[in-house]
């Protein structure tokens, strides 16, 4: 047992020494990026999938748990692979050109996005739409910072909020099929299901009656 412990300590010392080697820093950063992508993807997706599955999906407990595990795995894997690809291409471009330039980030992320998130499935679609809203806000702020758009005299956020909510409810009421399925489910629960009840049980306690009456 003592020999095993000593061997483990020696292995840990060797690993720590390797991690301090500057020449391996770029490659190790790529590996840690893969690790962080996997962990972050699981942390983000697992609670979201848990809530959405038990709120809106039917099926047995086994089927629901399988759906949650599959969604969590897919999100975690995709994010890990994207971070690995992005950081690897960033390191490669910097090594080839001898310096880091802004185009490197755009090009590396484009390649990673195409390879990892290019498949049109519910999880990738949700991630892309999440990023799209952030990109639009970021580009708007950048345009103001660079002077392409004049600084607003008043906070434009109330107008943006009004237009976004007005548009999404108009789409829901009259062009529902254009919205993402998870958004349709959420809005159906909020705006359609609240129009239907039979007695106090499905007015206050439950959303829908399950007794077949």
From TrEMBL:
Pfam families: Tim17
InterPro entries: Pmp4
GO CC field: peroxisomal membrane
PANTHER family for the chain: PEROXISOMAL MEMBRANE PROTEIN 4
Protein name: PXMP4 protein
Gene that this sequence comes from: Pxmp4
């Amino acid at each position: 047992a003592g020999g095993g412990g000593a061997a483990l300590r020696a292995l840990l010392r060797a690993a720590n020494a390797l991690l301090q080697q500057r020449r391996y820093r770029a490659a190790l950063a790529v590996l840690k990026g893969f690790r962080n992508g996997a962990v972050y993807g699981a942390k983000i997706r697992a609670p979201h999938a848990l809530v959405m599955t038990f709120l809106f999906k039917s099926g047995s407990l086994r089927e629901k748990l399988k759906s949650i595990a599959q969604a969590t795995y897919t999100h975690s894997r995709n994010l890990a692979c994207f971070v690995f690809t992005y950081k690897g291409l960033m390191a490669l471009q910097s090594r080839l050109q001898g310096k880091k330039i802004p185009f490197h980030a755009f090009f590396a992320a484009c390649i990673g996005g195409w390879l990892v998130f290019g498949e049109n499935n519910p999880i990738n679609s949700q991630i892309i739409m999440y990023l799209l809203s952030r990109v639009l806000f970021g580009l708007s702020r950048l345009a103001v910072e660079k002077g392409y758009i004049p600084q607003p005299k008043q906070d434009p956020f109330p107008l943006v909020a009004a237009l976004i909510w007005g548009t999404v409810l108009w789409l829901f009421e009259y062009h529902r099929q254009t919205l993402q399925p998870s958004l349709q489910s959420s809005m159906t629960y909020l705006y359609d299901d609240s129009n239907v009840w039979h007695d106090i049980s499905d007015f206050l306690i439950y959303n829908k009656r399950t007794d077949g009456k």
